[in-house]
């Protein structure tokens, strides 16, 4: 029987396990990437393993999140990242060079390669045929140490694209449509593999928009074939030698198929505060807009921004509407500049920001109170923009630019003729010299640690009997932003666990931290899809620092589950969801950890004698990791 693309990549990288959906597999990882907000911790963890050099073919450390150097913390982190990269053989991308996923796509991603990154939008590289997955920083550190990356063998869903995009519909509308169809829980345990005639009509930057935001489906990853479009892209980037064809066999099989007719799509938006609350742009006609933001790792390519400028050209923003544009890389910015497109952009009244994540991670650009902000980003969780009561809508660059100019939602039927599809300019400037490649001789390299780089904490193994209390009860769809908010002040503390832990659940319950500090340990009780959102391991590390020993939920998001395991927190699922209502904050619970078995059911007892059944989907290894007090204890610190 033939293989699909996912199976082809997995089978050529399989170290342990069988390719049967759900069973644990260990994969050889070719490439890793980190960004600064998760990277400092990942490199501290790598250092703790005592390995002389990274063992991957390529590892890159990007600085794109905390680029506002207000005070010593962020520059100290960047200095540590630069020097630790030089010491251990990692390529370093300085602040302002660009957003990790855009840069990786342009410069390093390869068809058929495996890539894990300590950022949940690592699947962006699936746009040119990499098997690219978001992971916790510790998993990335282990991959850099040469260890296989363990995941449950995913189911592979085919997304069959037919037809061709028309009018104002874009690649963003394809993924928004899929999110509306399948919801933010629809991809758990799955890889979305794109195929069909419609695929041929999409360029690599368009494909990368789709694989990027596939992360919002909760998917393991998404990927496209490597074909003529891929070859064209790699050639344009001066990397023709990295091309190899990678397509599914004609008789490949899939666990499921979703068909999307591109010709039927229209401009869409995701409404506040979830990426799957998708409706048509025209259905919101009349809603006033106070801000638009174009950029982020989803929509900051040359074609996205040139299209934006062509829409803005010879127009001016209405008073009171703020439009921010962040190019995905200096290469994108240089291409725009060399074609004389910066002038028209500035003349429209738009603001040109640095080539970084910027407003996407709350580094400036917050909307006005109760403002409506139309953003080309991938997430619109409540408060992520930095303004708690702002309403963030997710849309394509075309839609964001049009609505900013109008100052309100309008019907795309009134927008006139859309700009033609943009590919690449004849000459593409290189920015390769801006990356800092590790020196041949690292003996003279000294790792510099400023006061913001705090040594790793050691955690003890789990006791045989856990006696604890529910210290916080939360509802469904709790995101990692709820657990640990983003924003300049907080993300600057990513290398300082005691300090950042002060913000755990700070926007959900301001007394949570003090309750934890006044007790030996604690349990968090959650609803469906607990921990969805980013890969930030601090959302597990912070609670662990405060003494959280278990989360008991109705269901759990993939990367957060992995992070909980890595830091020795038990991820337990209620066997009977109705038991959620029987427990409240302050409920006492005990559990014999010796009664836990991989994939088994255990019984917890409340202080008033109620029996609560909890399940786990842990493998033998994962359970051993948790009982040892986390992955670093399990693999052994040096
Ligand atoms: Fe950065 Fe936002 Fe992407 S924080 S990596 S641009 S999701």
UniProtKB/TrEMBL annotation:
Pathways per UniProt: Carbohydrate metabolism; tricarboxylic acid cycle; isocitrate from oxaloacetate: step 2/2
GO CC aspect terms: cytosol
Any single GO BP term: tricarboxylic acid cycle
Assigned keywords, A-Z: Iron, Iron-sulfur, Metal-binding
EC number, UniProt record: 4.2.1.3
InterPro entries (UniProt xref): Acnase/IPM_dHydase_lsu_aba_1/3, Acoase/IPM_deHydtase_lsu_aba, Aconitase/3IPM_dehydase_swvl, Aconitase/IPM_isomerase, Aconitase_4Fe-4S_BS, Aconitase_4Fe-4S_dom, Aconitase_put, AconitaseA/IPMdHydase_ssu_swvl
Location of the Aconitase/3-isopropylmalate dehydratase large subunit alpha/beta/alpha domain: 7-407
Recorded catalytic activity of this chain's protein: citrate = D-threo-isocitrate
Gene Ontology MF annotations: 4 iron, 4 sulfur cluster binding; aconitate hydratase activity; metal ion binding
Swiss-Prot/TrEMBL cofactor(s): [4Fe-4S] cluster
The keyword DNA damage is assigned to this record: no
All copies of domain Aconitase A/isopropylmalate dehydratase small subunit swivel, residue ranges: 519-576
Annotated PANTHER family: ACONITATE HYDRATASE B (PTHR43160), ACONITATE HYDRATASE, MITOCHONDRIAL (PTHR43160:SF3)
Name recorded for this polypeptide: Aconitate hydratase A
Provenance organism: Maridesulfovibrio ferrireducens
């Amino acid at each position: 029987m033939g293989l699909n693309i996912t199976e082809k990549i997995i089978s050529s990288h399989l170290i342990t396990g069988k390719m049967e959906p759900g069973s644990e597999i260990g994969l050889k990882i070719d490439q890793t990437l980190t960004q600064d907000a998760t990277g400092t911790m990942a490199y501290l963890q790598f250092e703790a393993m005592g390995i002389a050099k990274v063992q991957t073919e390529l590892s890159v450390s990007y600085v794109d999140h905390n680029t506002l150097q207000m005070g010593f913390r962020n520059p100290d982190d960047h200095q540590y990242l630069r020097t630790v990269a030089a010491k251990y053989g990692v390529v370093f991308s300085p602040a302002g060079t660009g957003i990790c996923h855009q840069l990786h796509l342009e410069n390093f991603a390869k068809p058929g390669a495996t890539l894990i990154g300590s950022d949940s939008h690592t699947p962006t590289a699936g746009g040119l045929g990499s098997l690219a997955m978001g992971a916790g920083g510790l998993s990335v550190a282990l991959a850099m140490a040469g260890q296989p990356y363990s995941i449950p063998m995913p189911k592979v869903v085919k997304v069959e694209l037919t037809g061709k995009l028309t009018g104002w519909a874009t690649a963003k509308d394809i993924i928004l449509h899929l999110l509306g169809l399948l919801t933010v829980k629809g991809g758990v345990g799955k890889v979305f593999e794109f195929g069909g005639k419609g695929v041929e009509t999409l360029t690599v930057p368009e494909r990368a928009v789709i694989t990027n935001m596939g992360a919002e489906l909760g998917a393991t990853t998404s990927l496209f074939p490597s074909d003529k479009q891929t070859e064209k892209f790699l050639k344009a980037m001066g990397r023709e030698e990295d091309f190899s064809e990678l397509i599914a066999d004609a008789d490949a099989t899939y666990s499921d198929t979703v068909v999307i007719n591109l010709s039927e799509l229209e401009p869409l938006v995701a409404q506040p505060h979830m990426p799957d609350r998708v409706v048509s742009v025209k259905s919101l006609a009349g809603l006033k807009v106070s801000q638009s933001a174009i950029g982020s790792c989803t929509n900051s390519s040359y074609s996205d921004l040139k299209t934006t400028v062509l829409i803005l050209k010879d127009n001016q923003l209405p008073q009171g509407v703020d439009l921010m544009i962040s190019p995905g890389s200096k290469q994108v910015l240089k291409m725009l500049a060399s074609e004389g497109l910066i002038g028209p952009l500035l003349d429209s009244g738009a603001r040109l920001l640095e080539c970084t994540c910027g407003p996407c991670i709350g580094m400036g650009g917050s909307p006005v109170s109760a403002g409506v902000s139309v953003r080309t980003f991938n997430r619109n969780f409540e408060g992520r923009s930095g303004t708690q009561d702002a309403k963030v809508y997710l849309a394509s660059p075309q839609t964001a630019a049009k609505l900013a100019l109008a100052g309100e939602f309008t019907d795309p039927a009134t927008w006139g003729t859309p700009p033609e599809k943009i590919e690449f300019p004849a000459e593409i400037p290189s920015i390769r010299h801006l990356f800092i490649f590790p020196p041949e001789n690292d003996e003279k390299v000294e790792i510099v640690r400023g006061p913001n780089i705090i040594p790793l904490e050691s955690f003890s193994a789990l006791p045989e009997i856990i006696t604890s209390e529910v210290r916080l009860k939360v509802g469904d769809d709790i995101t990692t932003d709820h657990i640990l908010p983003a924003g300049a002040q907080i993300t600057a503390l990513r290398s300082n666990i005691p300090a950042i832990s002060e913000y755990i659940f700070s926007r959900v319950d301001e007394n949570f931290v003090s309750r934890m500090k006044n007790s030996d340990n604690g349990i968090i009780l959650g609803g469906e899809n607990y921990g969805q959102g980013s890969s930030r391991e601090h959302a597990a590390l912070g609670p662990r620092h405060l003494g959280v020993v278990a989360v008991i939920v109705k269901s759990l998001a993939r990367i957060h589950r992995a992070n909980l395991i890595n830091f020795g927190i038990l991820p337990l699922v209620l066997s009977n969801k109705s038991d959620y209502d029987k427990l409240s904050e302050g409920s006492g619970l005990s559990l014999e950890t010796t009664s836990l078995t991989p994939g088994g059911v255990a019984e917890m007892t409340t202080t008033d004698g109620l029996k609560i059944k909890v399940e786990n989907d842990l493998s033998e290894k994962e359970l051993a990791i948790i009982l040892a007090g986390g992955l670093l204890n399990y693999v052994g610190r040096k």
